[in-house]
Specification:
By secondary structure, this protein is mainly β. It folds into 2 domains: about 10-255, no CATH class; about 325-555, Neuraminidase (6 Propeller), CATH 2.120.10. The chain is about 5% helix and about 40% strand. The chain has 5 helices and 40 strands. Strands 3-1-14-5-7-9 form a 6-stranded mixed sheet, with no helix packed on it. It is globular, with a radius of gyration of 25 Å.
Length: about 550
């Protein structure tokens, strides 16, 4: 996990409220959504919230979940969300709850929510755009601090002026307050607590984690961590709340010695705790390990059911769920589309789909509830296909970064890379980062998705301000916003090779170049249309009207 979440002070002006705010507490993940803060084996996989163990030495080696997931009491009553906190507790959980719906924009994050009590302080960040009153003259936001089992160092941030009204219950341990804001911030109700106030004119932590929209939100929190000497433990962002409650809830049942009592193995979801694994040759069932009989009957590849392998597939082939080697461009349930002269991988109605360029048929696949949309734009303008996986950039509450969807395994993985566009090149991927007021920060090339997971890439000194982008061989095709043509650049130098002028207006919802020289452009925002051009000249060839809107294209030549 790379700590940090900041929006530059002026940057929040460009943010429009968007749907998806979970402001009743730390967001609960789903099988198809996981934030880019949930490391497991180097990445983030949907439906897999088993996180790395906590880093605190005094956390008693208990359960941990470094996730944009949490309490599960969202939407419940006050009594359900905040049960009575006894004065002493051996194992507790940090919680938060905003008052109201955050104006539809914001999110919460917690690192290792379960802790043993102690005297080491925890750093908690609360940051907003403005108070619910929308006032520029210092509207109030009530911060109610319930009982805490460790001292709290509190960071408060806002863009507009806020009067932070601090209320504390018996047992609330507030050690220090740091304040950041573009406009002046005022603290009342905590005269006995040291306050370091960097407002007005200072940076502030923003309202999302670890980045959102066109802005990387991490650098300010890195500065906060440097100033306080502490690592951020919780982050709560909200557009315009009237108040927030913070506190600790005793969760003795989630202590490892309690939750795993009598259990040899298995996952305890309510505590996000793994009770242990089984040795080779055994499998976990009903909380205990038992002998497993490996079998490769009828399988040419994949698992033998006991942790071993039945073999691997050759070049151009993938192992499907039945253990068969199939062509890597095989898509479940879409055989009719892949039989057309040309077809494209795309996104339609938030799901991966195939588009037949002869018929216009759109064939969705994957889980019906798989959600690949981004907030603030109709959808992605560029996608990629690599090693049996769909690649795209997703930017919405709770899910930020470069996403890989393994088609046959039906697994979603997220790399925490600020990403607004991409193209596949040389078995790796080029990502466009649109930060700092919508201007491109540059293009970054990752030689593999694993490198993207680790944040290890090569940034090129030239940038493409692209509405849509794609690559073919050693050429990058991109179209800037509002342009009437495409620019073709050599990779990796960025030298302009030529331009392709479009002889009619087209709004780019994606584009791709096929091996036989077809330039395919999706027009998804103004009308549902896909246009095919001659790549060499830009000459119009024909149009097809898809049976459903599509966004993003990675196109192939059929059989």
């Amino acid at each position: 996990m790379r700590p940090g979440a900041c929006l530059g002070a002026m940057a929040l002006l460009a943010l429009a409220p968007a749907a998806g705010c979970n402001c009743q507490g730390v967001a609960v993940g789903t099988d198809d959504e996981v934030a880019a803060d949930t490391p497991r084996d180097g990445g983030f996989e949907a439906g897999d919230l088993d996180a790395d163990a906590g880093s605190d030495a005094d956390s008693d080696a208990g359960p941990a979940a470094d996730a944009d997931t949490g309490t599960g009491e969202d939407g419940g009553s006050e009594a359900e969300a905040w049960p009575d906190a006894p004065s002493t507790c051996e194992w507790y959980e940090m919680r938060s709850a905003f008052d109201g719906d955050c104006g539809g924009y914001g999110e919460s994050w917690v690192r290792d929510p379960f802790y043993a009590p102690g005297d080491e302080p925890v750093l908690r960040v609360v940051s907003v755009y403005e108070p619910a009153t929308g006032s520029r003259t210092g509207g109030p936001i009530r911060l109610h601090l319930r009982r805490t089992y460790r001292p709290v160092v509190l960071v408060l941030g806002a863009y507009e002026s806020v009067e932070w009204v601090i209320e504390r219950d018996e047992g609330a341990r507030l050690e220090r307050i740091f304040v950041y804001g573009y406009d002046a911030q005022e603290i009342t109700g905590a005269d006995d607590v040291p306050v370091t106030n960097h407002s007005p004119g200072g940076d502030h932590p923003g309202i999302c984690w670890p980045f959102c929209s066109e802005y990387d939100t991490r650098s300010s929190v890195e500065r906060i961590e440097a100033e306080t000497g502490l690592a951020v433990r919780t982050f709560d962002g909200c557009y315009n709340p009237s108040g927030i409650t913070l506190g600790d809830v005793c969760r003795e049942e989630c202590r490892a010695t309690v939750a795993c009592a009598g259990r040899e193995c298995g996952w305890v979801p309510e505590c996000r705790l793994e009770c242990g694994g089984c040795p080779p040759g055994e499998r976990c069932g009903s909380w205990s390990c038992s002998a497993c009989a490996p079998s490769c009957s009828g399988r040419a590849c994949g698992t033998d059911g006991c942790g071993g392998s039945c073999g691997s597939c050759g070049d151009g082939l993938l192992c499907d769920g039945s253990g068969a080697c199939v062509p890597d461009a095989t898509f479940p349930g879409c055989a009719d589309v892949t039989a057309e002269s040309h077809y494209c991988l795309t996104v339609s109605d938030r799901r991966p789909a195939l588009l037949g360029l002869d018929s216009g048929t759109v064939c969705p696949f994957g889980k019906p509830d798989l959600d690949l949309h981004s907030e603030g734009t109709p959808d992605t303008g560029s996608i990629g296909w690599l090693d049996g996986s769909l690649l795209l950039c997703i930017e919405r509450t709770g899910l930020h970064g470069l996403v890989r969807y393994d088609v046959l395994a039906d697994v979603l993985t997220v790399a925490p890379v600020p990403c607004s566009g991409l193209a596949v090149w040389r078995d790796g991927m080029i990502t466009e980062q649109m930060l700092s007021w919508g201007y491109p920060e540059g293009l970054t090339y990752f030689t593999s998705f694993d490198d993207a997971l680790d944040g290890v890439g090569e940034t090129w000194p030239w940038a493409a301000w692209a509405e849509a982008m794609t690559s073919h061989e050693d050429l990058l095709y991109w179209a800037g916003r509002g342009s009437d043509g495409l620019e073709v650049r050599s990779l990796p130098s960025g030298e302009v090779v030529r331009t392709i002028t479009l002889d009619y207006d087209v709004s780019l919802g994606g584009m791709s170049v096929t091996d036989d020289g077809l330039l395919v452009i999706a027009s998804g925002w103004r009308e549902v249309r896909v246009t095919m051009l001659d790549e060499a000249t830009g000459t119009w060839l024909r149009d097809v009207v898809p049976t459903a809107p599509v966004f993003g294209l990675a196109c192939f030549v059929g059989p």
